[in-house]
């Protein structure tokens, strides 16, 4: 499946009011990313950092939810996920080439 195919299929399950375009999926993305982070935290607390097959599956399910919301944010911005991914890799390659992968700030 390509990014474009995923984005088109994900769009079919977006059931939020148009008045909340962008806001709804952005808040959902933050929530799902938090759920993913919380499950990872519990791996440290409850499993001594050992990833069990069950926990791995739960993390992948949360990651799928994150992906859905990323797709919806892109859709609501009128963007194609493929273009977003390609632009991100271009930015990272540029930072690597300039020795700027480490550090902070958007404009490195």
TrEMBL record:
Domain NTP pyrophosphohydrolase MazG-like: 28-96
CDD domains reported in the protein's UniProt record: NTP-PPase_u4 (cd11541)
Coiled coil: none
Family annotation (SUPFAM superfamilies): all-alpha NTP pyrophosphatases (SSF101386)
Pfam families xref list: MazG (PF03819)
Top-level taxon: Bacteria
InterPro entries the UniProt entry points to: MazG-like_dom, MazG-related_GP37
Protein name from the UniProt record: NTP pyrophosphohydrolase MazG-like domain-containing protein
């Amino acid at each position: 499946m390509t990014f474009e195919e995923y984005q088109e299929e994900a769009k079919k399950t977006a059931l939020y009011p148009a008045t909340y375009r962008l806001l709804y999926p952005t808040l959902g993305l933050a929530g799902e990313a938090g759920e993913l982070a919380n499950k990872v935290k519990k791996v440290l607390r409850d499993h001594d950092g050992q990833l069990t097959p069950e926990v791995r599956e739960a993390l992948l399910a949360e990651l799928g939810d994150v992906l859905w919301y990323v797709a919806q944010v892109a859709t609501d911005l009128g963007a194609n996920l493929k273009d977003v991914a390609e632009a991100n890799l271009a930015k990272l390659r540029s930072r690597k080439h300039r020795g700027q992968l480490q550090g902070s700030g958007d404009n490195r």
